[in-house]
Amino acid sequence: MSDTPVKQQSTAAFYGQAVASFAVAMAATAIGIARLDAGAWVRGFLTIAVLYLVTSAFTLAKVIRDRQEAGQIVSRVDQARLEKLLAEHDPFEKL
Asked: What is the tens place of the pLDDT at every residue in 49-78?
């Protein structure tokens, strides 16, 4: 059985870019809502809607990631079983 670790998919630069992009988008949305020429109820509604959208997006991303990781674990278990069977098989053994 191999002990190869699962590779990290993203680099530190990609992670930093994603965090910076998220921060800029949230700041721009917050500034846009704050400067909107509308009543407090409209701004409050838009703020809650944006926060709900962000939490829903994080939840969706987590669910997708969890499904992908579960698939990788099943694949690794199947690969380990196959390697064990191949290691135990003796092709010269008489039937």
From this structure: 999 999 999 999 999 988 888 777 767 777
Residue 70 domain-assigned? yes
Calpha distance 84→69 (Å, rounded): 23
Among left, alpha and beta (phi > 0; psi -120 to 50; other), residue 7 is: beta
Rounded to 5°, angle at Cα 11 from 9 and 15 = 100
In a domain, 65, yes or no: yes
CA dist list (Å): 21 to 15, 18, 25, 63:
10, 5, 6, 21
- Number of Cβ within a 10 Å radius of residue 58: 11
Residue 64 lies in a domain: yes
| Alpha carbons 77 and 62: distance in angstroms, whole number | 22
Q: How many domains does the chain have?
A: 1
**Domain, as residue range, for 24:** 12-88
User: Which residue in this structure is represented by tokens 């846009």?
Assistant: 32
